UniProtKB/TrEMBL annotation:
PANTHER family: TETRASPANIN (PTHR19282)
Signal peptide: none
Disulfide bond annotation, renumbered to this chain: C160-C177
Full protein name: Tetraspanin
UniProt-listed Pfam families: Tetraspanin
GO cellular component: plasma membrane
Keyword Phosphoprotein: no
Compartmental location: Membrane
PROSITE patterns assigned: TM4_1
InterPro entries xrefs: Tetraspanin/Peripherin, Tetraspanin_animals, Tetraspanin_CS, Tetraspanin_EC2_sf
Keyword GTP-binding (UniProt): no
Main location: membrane
Membrane-spanning segments: 12-35, 56-84, 90-113, 203-227
Length: 238
């Protein structure tokens, strides 16, 4: 027998929140795919120097987002169907998946908080290792590949040097750094600063998406419990 009164209102509110949850899953999946194929990050993270790939810690969070977005769309559909059908079994399964997702999101948030500076620091260290080889006057065999790595950083981020560049680097600044305007030549932006800025913006976007999803999930868990209790207490349900 169908629920009535306030419980019926909860039923449609749960359906609405599940629909929003399903849409949020699609948005997160789309954002994650955009982050994975964003030209700035992709151009930097595919670089290789002295047989080592550029650090790809950033992609760990992106792959987690892709998985979360796909699961959210599946779980959101399950919640919508369970709410409309007033099925305690489907709603119970939906609640179980919500708990798992919420726990994973908390774990991912803790990992992201502890590693919030790691991503940019790893790439800064990678940049610095190429920087040292590029200004080496002893004729290092890896100097040409180091110069190519620096050129990729400079052209992608529109930056130049570390901000406290040596006299040796300033001698080759004209060939290594993009020069779009005279101001770029006189006051080039530090690549250390640009790397921090690049990944801070993207991690902020990921954190904002996670916060919105967490709020939706809390409301969904509450509504799911209330609706299950309402279905159980409805006349004709034993």
């Amino acid at each position: 027998m169908a629920v009535a009164g306030c419980t019926k209102c909860i039923k449609y509110m749960l359906f609405f929140f599940n629909f929003i949850f399903w849409l949020a899953g699609g948005v997160i999946l789309a954002v994650a795919l955009w982050l994975r194929h964003d030209s700035q990050t992709s151009n930097l993270l595919i670089l290789q120097f002295e047989g080592q790939q550029a650090p790809g810690t950033f992609y760990i969070s992106v792959y987690i987002l892709i998985a979360v977005g796909a699961v959210m769309m599946l779980v959101g559909f399950l919640g919508c169907y369970g709410a409309i059908q007033e099925s305690q079994c489907l709603l119970g399964t939906f609640f179980f998946f919500l708990i798992i997702l919420f726990a994973c999101e908390v774990a991912a948030a803790m990992w992201g908080f502890m590693n919030r500076d790691t991503i940019s620091k790893e790439l800064i260290n990678f940049y610095d290792s190429a920087y040292i080889k590029a200004v080496d006057v002893s004729g290092s065999p890896s100097k040409d590949s180091a110069i190519k790595v620096l050129e990729a950083f400079h052209s992608t981020l529109n930056c130049c040097g570390k901000g406290d560049d040596t006299a040796l680097f300033k001698q080759v600044i004209g060939t290594l750094c993009p020069r779009k305007t005279q101001e770029d030549v006189l006051k080039p932006q530090s690549c250390h600063y640009k790397l921090d800025e690049l990944f801070s913006e993207k991690l902020y976007l990921i954190g904002l998406a996670a916060l919105v999803v967490a709020v939706i999930m809390i409301f969904e868990m509450i509504f799911t419990m209330v609706l299950c209790c309402g279905i159980r207490n409805s006349p004709g349900v034993y």
